[in-house]
Specification:
six-stranded parallel sheet, 39% helix, SIR2/SIRT2 'Small Domain', three-stranded antiparallel sheet, alpha/beta, Rossmann fold
């Protein structure tokens, strides 16, 4: 029998550690969804912010300057996301749930592809392009716990004057906006607090498709490292996370993550765990 290639040996080592984890946090960024045809924001060649001004498209001020144009841009983006499908990386992460006692996906992505792939516990740090809320939210558009009410696309169609673009809030008549985090805005306190708690309590963190530079999300691997977690970074190129990771696996998530899943399944079978 021939020698096992170095990268296969490394993936097997990682698989052994992840299967042994009680709590696994998966932290993902735009690189994971890029393989589904969804453009990233910051790529130097084809990132959205190389073609559009972020201050026009992703700020409150930009929306108020030209709400019809910005809404149209998000409508186009939603169409692209709706036509996209989870790729093998998304599917592999969802399948890993059955191999560890607790797995939570914490994502910077707003496309909902992790949930569509089958992941059951997804923390969306930057919101979702499939949800909408009132621009101001300082009125009756609140849940009992004080959080803004959000609308699905189907619910937008039931609003008064559904053809109006942008739609208007049924409570105050104000503009409705995508339920995503824009520049100059804070992340939802409950969402980022849960993400921080998960990072501090995990035994292992699997990072995929993020450069590790956008704060406060970039703090998650640092918190996990301080808590003694085993950290794996998956990316085509070395990034900020690679410097603190125990293992760096070079390659796109759509290639590396299915290989890692297969190795985890093999390891689980050898140790008698149900798969």
């Amino acid at each position: 029998m021939g020698d096992v290639p170095d990268d296969d040996r490394l993936i097997r080592t990682v698989a052994r550690r992840l299967v042994a984890a009680r709590r696994l946090v998966v932290f993902t960024g735009a690189g994971v969804s890029k393989e589904s045809g969804i453009a990233t924001f910051r790529d130097a060649d084809d990132g959205l912010w190389t073609r559009y001004d972020a201050m026009d498209m992703a700020t409150r001020e930009g929306y108020l300057r030209d709400p019809e144009y910005v809404w149209g841009w998000y409508e186009h983006r939603f169409g692209l996301v709706a036509d996209a499908a989870p790729n093998p990386g998304h599917l592999a992460l969802a399948a890993m749930e059955r191999l560890v006692p607790e797995l939570v996906v914490v994502t910077q992505n707003i496309d909902g592809l992790h949930a569509r792939a089958g992941s059951t516990d997804v923390v969306e740090l930057h919101g979702s392009i499939a949800r909408f809320r009132c621009l101001d939210g300082q009125h009756a558009d609140r849940t009992p716990d004080g959080r803004p009410v959000v609308f699905t696309r189907a619910e937008l169609a039931d609003l008064p004057d559904p053809a109006r673009r942008p739609p208007r809030c049924p409570h105050c008549g104000g503009l409705i906006r995508p339920d995503v985090v824009w520049f100059g805005e804070l992340l939802d306190e409950a969402v980022i607090s849960r993400a921080f708690d998960l990072a501090r309590a995990c035994d292992a963190m699997l990072v995929a498709g993020t450069s590790g530079v956008v704060q406060p999300a970039a703090s998650l691997p640092i918190l996990a490292r301080r808590a003694g977690a085993f950290i794996v970074d998956v990316n085509p190129d070395e990034d900020e996370v690679a410097a603190l990771a125990d293992v760096f696996l070079r390659g796109p998530g759509g290639d590396v993550l299915p290989r890692l899943l297969a190795a985890m399944e093999e390891e689980a079978a050898q140790t008698g765990l149900p798969i």
